Amino acid sequence: MSGRLTFFEIGALRDAISRLSKQGRKDIVLNFSGLQYLDSSGIGELARIYVSVVKANGQMKVVGLSLRVEEILKITQLHQVLPEFPSEEAALQSFPEFNRKETI
Asked: Residue 39 gets which letter from DSSP?
């Protein structure tokens, strides 16, 4: 993700996650390294996506948190359900099925 995650941009994230879900992909890694700004709508959308991923028996993990975004996730307690990893590779390897599935 890059730029901003606000009311105006959450539709694009929702659509991307929906496409992945329709492809049968239930485990999600969000790379926030390019994310510059996150507002309450973005936070709400992350929470909504997290719930939908968990309901589909999936997991959601994050990488590339700036200090500001990390602070927001801590204030909102989302850091408790969105584990942070130092890299995309580390996040992918943390999924139980990583060694059994092809990644894209």
From this structure: -
What is the rounded CA–CA span in Å between residue 98 and residue 102? Answer: 8
Kindly report the pTM of this predicted structure.
Answer: 0.85
Integer Cα distance of 22 and 2 in angstroms? 23
91 φ/ψ angles, rounded to the nearest 5 degrees: -65, -45
Measure the CA–CA gap between 68 and 52, rounded to whole angstroms. 25
pLDDT digits (tens, 9 = 90+) for 60-83: 999 999 999 999 999 999 999 999
Give every CB contact of residue 39 below 8 A, 6+ residues apart in sequence.
4, 5, 6, 7
What the block records as the tokens of 83 is: 């584990």
Measured between alpha carbons, how far is 95 from 72 in angstroms, rounded to an integer? 25
CB 42 within 8 A of CB 5: yes
Q: Identify the band that residue 104 occupies on the pLDDT scale cut at 50, 70 and 90.
A: very low
Residue for token digits 């990644």? 103
